[in-house]
Amino acid sequence: MLLVAAGVGATAGVVFGGRPELRTSGSGATEGTMSAKIGEAATSKGAAVETPGDAQYANSDEANPGQNANAPANKTVFTHTATDANSRGDYTYISDPAIDGDPNAVVLVVPRTDRGNAKGASYDHNIGVWYEGVNEKKWAIFNQDREVKPAGTTFEVIIPPASETFVHYAMLDNTVGNSTYLDNPLTNGEPDAVLTVTQDWNPEGGRGVYNDHPICVL
Question: What's the mean pLDDT when you consider all of the chain?
């Protein structure tokens, strides 16, 4: 699943890397969902069904493909730093009144490369977000490769307004090879739209799948 944010009228797109290979589950549906904000971010996954770290919770029936009604009227942006207190293994909890307790939120994240992250200029893990709905009831940023998240790692978190976001699910009828086609009024017929995408492991708080690949839009 991808969380997508879009900004219509811009002249460039934000590229995060190569497109992911999406896998097909035994039921025939492609495993993968994405959320999109026009002008900001989306999420996609497709691998073994597991829960980030050791957290476990029940399946949800079906995630809501529509916009997040609880999103703020204006975009919220803040910096999150992973610490020993807010991190558990491969993920770090983030907190903001606009998203705490809301499994339907659209949360976009990108690593900060100017705040002393490991290896200086880059963060060498593919990341995603997931909602932990059993204990903390908060969103978290996790490493797709399940490597421990180093303390001191910083991320920019974007909570866009609902009018600029949507959630995209990679399914058999919209996926060809390693590409999945977005179909939303915010992006259709808008070649100059700027999309930001973040991989969402479990929209609405169900079980999810890993997709340890960089993603991009075109």
Answer: 74
Percentage with pLDDT > 70 across the chain: 66
Q: Which of 23, 25, 37 is nearest to 178 (CA)?
A: 23
pLDDT at residue 90 in the model: 96
Q: CA separation (Å) from 105 to 72, 159, 165?
A: 10, 8, 10
Q: Domain residues for 36?
A: 2-22+31-51+68-209
Residue 187 lies in a domain: yes
Q: Is residue 218, in this structure, part of any structural domain at all?
A: no
Distance CA 122, CA 6 (A): 24
Residue 61 domain-assigned?
Answer: no
What domain count does the chain have?
1
- What pLDDT, in 10s, does the model give residues 124-182? 899 999 999 989 999 999 999 999 999 999 999 999 998 999 999 988 999 999 999 99
Within-domain flag for 142: yes
Please provide the distance, in angstroms rounded to a whole number, between the alpha carbons at the two ends of the chain: 17
At 177 the three-state DSSP class reads coil
